[in-house]
Amino acid sequence: MQSDDPQNRLTPLQETLRYRFKDIHLLSKALTHKSYVNEKTESLKHNERFEFLGDSVLDLIVSDYMVKKYSQYSEGALSKIRASVVNENCLAHLARKIDLGQYLLLGRGEDLSGGRNKNSLLANAFEAVVGAVYFDSDLQTAYGILMPLLEEEIERYADTCQFRDYKSDLQEYTQNKLVCVPSYRVVKESGPDHDKRFEVAVIVREETLGRGVGRSKKEAEQAAAKMALEKINGDTGKTVPHGP
To answer: Does 55 qualify as catalytic in the annotation?
Structure first.
């Protein structure tokens, strides 16, 4: 995909984004990794400045959306949701949804070592593309282009209450009521290294009270703890482990 003509090379990506750049070289720069620049003799610019800009644009867009839609949530809750969305794993996931890896300009060594599939490179490139879109247009345009990608992720974290610390809530309950602490065990791993899924069971007094699935062990543990709390809150008392 490393054609000399950025207009032809990047037409499919522009179609995916539903945005045609006025200056296609801005998009090309956003996709140029420093390893590529280091191997070239001509004067080229890599994407780190756009990455810096895109990080701020993403924070503003996500914050604006959440303040308008989730007015009942506290500042702390909104901050935690935003942190869950604007992080390396989530941004790399979004980059893969638009096949961003195939458009990256990488040095030979970085390419051979699997750079097109690295979370860090993909997340940084996604931020750089955001910065390039903003630089080529304006904030309103960037908002309209990016929200279809971001909205699902924002709502996923908000709807599952990822900002709430279910593990702490469950531990507080078991310590106070059952005089014990829950333990967590990974029961299944699936998917390739760059897109793992973990299934975790939470165990209280040798009984599995919940199972959760997530892109990380931490996310799966939170989901398992949430299920355990829902079971405890809705239980009649017959299956909840009791203390001495």
So the answer is: yes
